[in-house]
């Protein structure tokens, strides 16, 4: 089973951009929904301009080569936003996307009281999603987002395990359908203020990891730590833990995604070294709890 | 000559009887224009009306003209509303229509609506106003809840058909199924597959038990295999089944029961649903595959790879197949070898970004065209396409009436030659003389529109996105496609020149949609001035600008009829969305603030 270490972003090309925009409190969750694609009515005008690609009249010459070079540039723009989109397509009309956008907008207003058009600069993770493309209905889009099958491959080996998994999947499926958002608190070690993230907007550990990285990378930069310190922070390992219904802190990544969603109550990001200490405490705590539990049962 | 004058001496009943053989709407519309007498006879004997755009005529006028109406079909929002390009609250309200019908057409039996906003109150009115009401079909509608469904179930004594396809229905609990009265035994068709919530399973079983005429039943995901098995045992005459969730343990009683139940359904022709389908449950379906004509696996990402192949190779009589692209080219090759009668194929995307190993490419399409020459309807999502593949496909299948190809990355050229896909799509229009509906994608220049204008003479609906170079492209289409009824364009470089190239053309069409193109307010105003029989509606984000002004203390009263904003001088502003349609109803009275009729 794969364990997911909460490491700093693998894509180094993003790091310099984050440094440049230290004041630019970007609270995007890594889902490219932080522009008008989500909320139709409140969309800033500048963001809308981004969607339309035809701001200048295209040269009338129909020569294929020119066409290809123009469109390959366009295609490059597009392929970039399509293939680099970290978390996959998010329905811009979904509640999650709109809420994220609202959060991002609020943060922008706090950080920059005079919003300028440059705030929607073309950072890789800020690339606009094309509204209404591809042309499929939202009922199908949500099916793609859920995509539970990746974690639920039935091998045909152990039938009892299979049926358990089947039941869990169905449970998770129905729960996900009936409950559109699953916001949990995320606390980073050393910060008294935490964040909230919608787990139902993700379908895998990878996408959750990326979202959290984006969320908290800026946390660090907002603190105006010096470059070196930031680099150090980037290099040290962070651990992602979650707390389940029983109150235990568990390393994220051991169980299938759907099971994780069922049991997670909140998330913690801690440094690797301090996790061991906490583990020590945790063992004591859980032993106490176990003792209590046993007492209860015997009663 | 002699025959002509003789017609005038026919009594009305005879003419009416002759008209009863005319079922095709355009024919009936034509005879009504011959003379006043025929107009009167036609309108009184008209039983079915199809209104392709609910704003083309006022509801009370339609209701008054056809008092004997039994069946009404209405379409509301433009097609691109399916893809979130039309803001909510745009319109398409069913209320005024249902009220008008309630006043003037009490014999209404069937109501079919697509992309309209229906309220629970309207459904309540519907349930009470039409004593003979038999069939309600709602496709892609919204605005109502399960309470509205309960009202219909409760009060429509002879309800035969309740068909809900792809609607947004607010779930207010599972009790609506209980609302079907105990004496209601007339149900023939029930489809609630789009309902997201729980369903009262006991009520469902009882309802099925007392509906001996049930032919079509489509369940939603909340219905488990156990209930499905019980239901199937009750109705062995079922012809169309949409399963609920097919998650089951192979040793469970439910599974065994399902297998035996399905084997008894000799008349089953159409299958859909397949949510969470495990390969085990698919095994249960094998015995009936040989007779299937319709199969919809497009909501079943779990059915892929070898499971799919094992299933599809039995479906030798299949006419319609809807799948996800996770079946891959390999799966499509098996379809091509097994389903020789295939007429309609739809392949939906399962993953929008990574062209993984198990998605479809042009090879899958070519294989299908080689193996299934009767194919006439195609919707295909893929990551890339080549000209040579399209040329081959059109040679193999000259019978296309509907051809929609969506390459997921906009403006993507032919990867083999790096050229635009003009020749490929051009080949399709050249060989498929009966092409009525066409959607194109990928890298396209004006050349493809030249071909469309020149060859696609039967074309009625064209959807374009991210294509073309100049106004000439759109002009080719407007000039050449004589039967064009609906044209929808997004993100193309067509400007005022194209829009105004042939303004009278729009009167021959149902509607035109242009979004994110290069048209300006001036062009739209010019169109509105020249053609008063059209509604020229624009939807703009200038609203956001206005709101900003308001927030900054500039006091401006914004009302629907306030032309200040439109006429403040800057006509060069680009229009984000334009919707033009012919109408005899004048500008609509229910347009929201962000829609301006010029």
TrEMBL record, chain A:
Primary location: nucleus
Record-level GO BP terms: auxin-activated signaling pathway; regulation of DNA-templated transcription
Keyword Nucleus: yes
Keyword Iron: no
Domain of life: Eukaryota
Region (Disordered): 278-299
Subcellular compartments: Nucleus
Start and end residues of each PB1 domain: 181-274
One GO CC term, this protein: nucleus
Key words, A-Z: Auxin signaling pathway, Nucleus, Repressor, Transcription, Transcription regulation
UniProt feature, compositional bias: Basic and acidic residues: 278-293
Subunit annotation: Homodimers and heterodimers.
Sequence similarity: Belongs to the Aux/IAA family.
PANTHER family (alphabetical): AUXIN-RESPONSIVE PROTEIN IAA17 (PTHR31734), AUXIN-RESPONSIVE PROTEIN IAA25 (PTHR31734:SF120)
Record function comment: Aux/IAA proteins are short-lived transcriptional factors that function as repressors of early auxin response genes at low auxin concentrations.
Protein's name according to its UniProt entry: Auxin-responsive protein
Organism: Rhynchospora pubera
Automatic annotation (TrEMBL), chain B:
A GO CC term attached to the entry: nucleus
Highest taxon of the lineage: Eukaryota
Biological processes per GO annotation: auxin-activated signaling pathway; pollen maturation; SCF-dependent proteasomal ubiquitin-dependent protein catabolic process
Domain Transport inhibitor response, first and last residues per copy: 67-113
Subunit structure: Part of a SCF (SKP1-cullin-F-box) protein ligase complex. May interact with auxin and auxin-responsive proteins.
PANTHER family: F-BOX/TPR REPEAT PROTEIN POF3, PROTEIN AUXIN SIGNALING F-BOX 3
Name of this protein: Auxin signaling f-box 2-like protein
């Amino acid at each position: 089973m794969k364990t997911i270490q909460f490491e700093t972003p693998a894509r180094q090309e993003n790091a310099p951009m984050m440094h440049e925009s230290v004041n630019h409190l970007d609270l995007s969750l890594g889902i490219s929904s932080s522009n008008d694609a989500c909320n139709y009515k409140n969309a800033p005008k500048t963001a809308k301009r981004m969607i339309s690609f035809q701001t200048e009249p295209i040269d009338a010459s129909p020569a294929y080569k020119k066409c290809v070079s123009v469109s390959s540039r366009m295609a490059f723009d597009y392929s970039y936003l399509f293939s680099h989109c970290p978390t996959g397509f998010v329905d811009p009309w979904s509640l999650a996307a709109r809420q994220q956008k609202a959060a991002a907008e609020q943060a922008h207003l706090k950080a920059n009281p005079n919003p300028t058009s440059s705030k929607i600069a073309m950072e890789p993770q800020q690339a606009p999603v094309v509204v209404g493309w591809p042309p499929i209905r939202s009922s199908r889009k949500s099916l793609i987002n859920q995509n539970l099958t990746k974690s639920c491959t039935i091998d045909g080996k152990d039938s009892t395990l299979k049926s358990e998994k089947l039941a869990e999947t169905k449970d998770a499926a129905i729960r996900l359908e009936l409950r559109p958002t699953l916001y949990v608190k995320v606390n980073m070690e050393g910060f008294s203020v935490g964040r909230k993230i919608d787990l139902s907007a993700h379908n895998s550990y990878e996408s959750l990891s990326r979202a959290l990285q984006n969320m908290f990378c800026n946390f660090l930069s907002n603190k105006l730590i010096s470059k070196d310190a930031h680099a150090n922070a980037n290099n040290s390992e962070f651990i992602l833990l979650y707390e389940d219904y029983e109150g235990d802190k568990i390393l994220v990544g051991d169980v299938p995604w759907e099971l994780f969603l069922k049991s997670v109550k909140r998330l913690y990001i801690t440094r690797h070294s301090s996790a061991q200490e906490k583990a020590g405490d945790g063992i004591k705590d859980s032993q106490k709890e176990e003792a209590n539990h046993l007492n209860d049962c015997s009663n | 000559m002699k025959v002509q004058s003789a017609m005038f001496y026919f009594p009305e009943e005879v003419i009416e009887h002759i008209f009863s053989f005319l079922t095709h709407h355009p024919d009936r519309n034509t005879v009504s224009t011959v003379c006043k007498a025929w107009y009167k006879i036609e309108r009184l004997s008209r039983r079915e009306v199809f209104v392709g755009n609910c704003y083309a005529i006022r509801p009370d006028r339609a209701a008054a003209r056809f008092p004997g109406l039994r069946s009404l079909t209405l379409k509301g929002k433009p097609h691109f509303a399916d893809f979130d390009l039309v803001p909510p609250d745009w319109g398409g309200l069913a209320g005024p229509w249902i009220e008008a019908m309630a006043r003037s057409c009490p014999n209404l039996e069937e109501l079919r609506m697509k992309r309209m906003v229906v309220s629970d109150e309207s459904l309540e009115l519907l349930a009470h106003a039409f004593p003979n009401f038999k069939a309600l079909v709602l496709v892609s509608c919204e605005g109502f809840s399960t309470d509205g469904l309960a009202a219909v179930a409760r009060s429509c004594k002879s309800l035969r058909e309740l068909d809900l396809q792809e609607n947004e229905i607010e779930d207010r609990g599972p009790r609506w199924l209980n609302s079907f009265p105990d004496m209601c035994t007339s149900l023939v068709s029930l489809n609630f597959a789009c309902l997201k919530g729980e369903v009262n399973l006991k009520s469902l079983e009882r309802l099925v038990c007392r509906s001996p005429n049930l032919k079509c039943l489509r369940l939603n995901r909340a219905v488990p295999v156990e209930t499905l098995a019980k239901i199937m045992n009750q109705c062995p005459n079922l012809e169309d089944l949409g399963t609920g969730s097919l998650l089951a343990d192979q040793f469970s009683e439910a599974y065994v029961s399902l297998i035996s139940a399905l084997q008894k359904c000799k008349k089953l022709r159409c299958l859909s649903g397949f949510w969470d389908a495990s390969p085990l449950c698919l095994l249960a379906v094998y015995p009936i595959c040989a007779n299937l004509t319709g199969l919809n696996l497009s909501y079943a990402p779990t059915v892929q790879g070898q499971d799919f192949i094992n299933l599809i190779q039995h479906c030798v009589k299949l006419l319609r197949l809807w799948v996800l692209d996770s079946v891959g080219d390999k799966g499509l090759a098996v379809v091509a070898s097994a389903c020789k009668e295939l007429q309609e194929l739809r392949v939906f995307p399962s993953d929008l970004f990574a062209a993984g190993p198990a998605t479809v490419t042009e090879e899958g399409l070519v294989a299908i065209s080689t193996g299934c020459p009767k194919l006439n309807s195609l919707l295909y999502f893929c990551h890339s396409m080549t000209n040579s593949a399209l040329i081959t496909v059109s040679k193999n299948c000259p019978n296309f009436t509907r051809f929609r190809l969506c390459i997921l990355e906009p403006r993507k050229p032919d990867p083999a030659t790096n050229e635009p896909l003009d020749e490929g799509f051009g080949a399709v229009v050249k060989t498929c003389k009966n092409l009525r509906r066409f959607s194109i994608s990928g890298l396209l220049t004006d050349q493809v529109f030249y071909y469309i204008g020149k060859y696609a003479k039967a074309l009625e609906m064209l959807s374009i996105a991210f294509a073309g170079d100049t106004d000439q492209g759109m002009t080719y289409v407007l000039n050449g496609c004589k039967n064009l009824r609906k044209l929808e364009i997004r993100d193309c470089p067509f400007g005022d020149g194209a829009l105004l190239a042939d303004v009278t053309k729009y009167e021959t069409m149902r509607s035109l949609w242009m979004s994110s193109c290069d048209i300006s307010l001036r062009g739209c105003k010019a169109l509105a001035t020249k053609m008063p029989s059209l509604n020229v509606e624009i939807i703009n984000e200038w609203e956001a600008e206005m709101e900003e002004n308001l927030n900054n203390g500039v006091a401006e009263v914004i009302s629907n009829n306030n032309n200040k904003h439109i006429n403040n001088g800057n006509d060069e502003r680009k229009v984000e969305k334009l919707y033009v349609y012919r109408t005899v109803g004048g500008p609509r009275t229910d347009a929201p603030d962000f829609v301006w009729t010029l």
